[in-house]
Amino acid sequence: MAQRVTIRKRTPYNTTSNKRRVVKTPGGKLVYHHLKKLATAPKCGDCGIALPGVPALRPRQYATISKTKKTVRRAYGGSRCGDCVKQRILRAFLVEEAKIVKKVIKSQQK
Question: Which entry of 1, 37, 83, 91 is 20 to 30 Å from 107 by CA?
Fold first, then answer.
């Protein structure tokens, strides 16, 4: 017959914050290990891919690490991925170019 395992925390319900794993101790006893929730990596706000260079942590752990570990040394670092930043810069440049062309055409028509 299998050995009984007692719950170590007060919550008996099988919720996401109450995950457990049965572990055998060196003394041969079976005990529950309460597991923490898995962390998800921060995502790019535009395309939704996980941001490279920023660790996947639980929200409270970001308060304990330094700012250099939370961001990337780039415009929009830690918020947008490099490809999206490149796209934004290119789009802004093309919009400005279009404005200049529009102004030149308007001045030539006069």
Answer: 91
Cα–Cα distance for residue pair 50/81, rounded to 1 Å = 8
Tokens of 101: 């062309």
Angle at 88 between CA 101 and CA 100, to 5 degrees: 10
Give residue-wise pLDDT tens across range 70-81: 999 999 999 999
Those residues whose C-beta lies under 8 Å from the C-beta of residue 97, and which sit 6 or more positions away, are: none
Quick one: pLDDT at residue 5?
Answer: 93
The amino acid that residue 33 corresponds to is H
Longest dimension (CA), the chain: 96
CB 31 within 8 A of CB 25: yes
The token pair at 50 is 């996980």
